[in-house]
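Lab notebook, bench 4. Still working through the backlog of constructs that have no structural model yet. Next entry is a single chain of 381 residues. Request: give me the structure tokens for it.
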Amino acid sequence: MRLISLARAQDGSELGRDVLVGRADGVPLLRAGVRLTPRYRELLDRSGISAVYVEDEASEGIVVEPAIDDHTRAVATRAVAGAYGSVRDSLSHGRRLTPEAVQGLEDVVARILDQITCSGGAALALADLSSADGYTFQHSIDVTAVGLLLGMRYYARHGWTDFRGERRFDRLEERMSILGLGLLLHDIGKLAVPLGILNKPGRLTPEEWAIMRTHPRAGVDMLDGSRWSPLVKAVVLRHHERWNGSGYPDGRAGDDIHQMARIAAVADVYDAITSDRLYAPARPAHSGVTAIVEGSGTLFDPDVVDVFRQVVAPFPAGTEVELCDGRRALVVSVNEEALDRPRVRILGRPGEAEEVSLLDDPTLAIRGWTHQPAATQPVAI
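Model written out:
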């Protein structure tokens, strides 16, 4: 299986992954196994889908393992859609959202956490194909997957700081559940932003941007006071704060930003960059990794970025790359010892399947890639 631009995908190609459009019931626009036709191509193009996973001869045997399986994603989509519906209903009746109204989200967090734990925390396909219209729900789900993956590694290595300022390594399962709930709800405040601003395809005006920046505080205001964990509220309120104080809503910096919010900030930005949005097409995984790495110590907590570099591959399996000698290749698998030195399959004539590990051949590299992810260190998760 490989990821290919819709413009290059041939009619008759078999879809390797579901394509989502943001339906609240989680039903995809097209399911894996469907073969592309001119009508389906037009449907995908109209929906803003710029790339698809396909099964073809060149990618035979390449396994793209999603972070979240199809069933869990469908369950998660319904739960997140239900949470957003509960917020709308509560607001219309002048009430705040109670934890009881979104109990299904706890099950979703547990499902996602189980899958990430079973995978061993390896670098997986961390996003699914979704139209820009599906961004709201799928972004919440994918940010949760990335954030929990980061959280497991971060807490195993650094622990968490209690109210006395002491570092602890106990109750990690409880903290992961709270982090996951905060991640699923992190953008709930966007329900208070007018749709004309939220769905604007172009650049926001300064006045519109000022309204958009109110959504973290609006999200906290939607939660029913003391009935929610303050840690959940910290993620909702602080996920746009930045390490150097340039974020919002309060311009907090460094350790004044809660640990969970610092993890959420990295997950949120990475997924936003690599997802189709109404005002920006999805960029490849290596662009998202580059943005996070270059923001280390300025926009993002450097400890969180160090963990990110060890678990998120810039070139996941199924990605087409150009090598420094000009040859095209498909990423077959990621080397956990060096995530930017994958095993690749050289794209040659039909029937040829030369493969090489960039980790074993120092003369080869991926053209244009300059960031060297940190060497991985074994960590119990």
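Notes after review: The beta strands are 2-5, 14-15, 51-55, 160-161, 167-168, 320-322, 328-333, 343-346, 355-357. The chain has three domains: 2-18+33-55, 70-311, 316-381. Flag for follow-up if needed.
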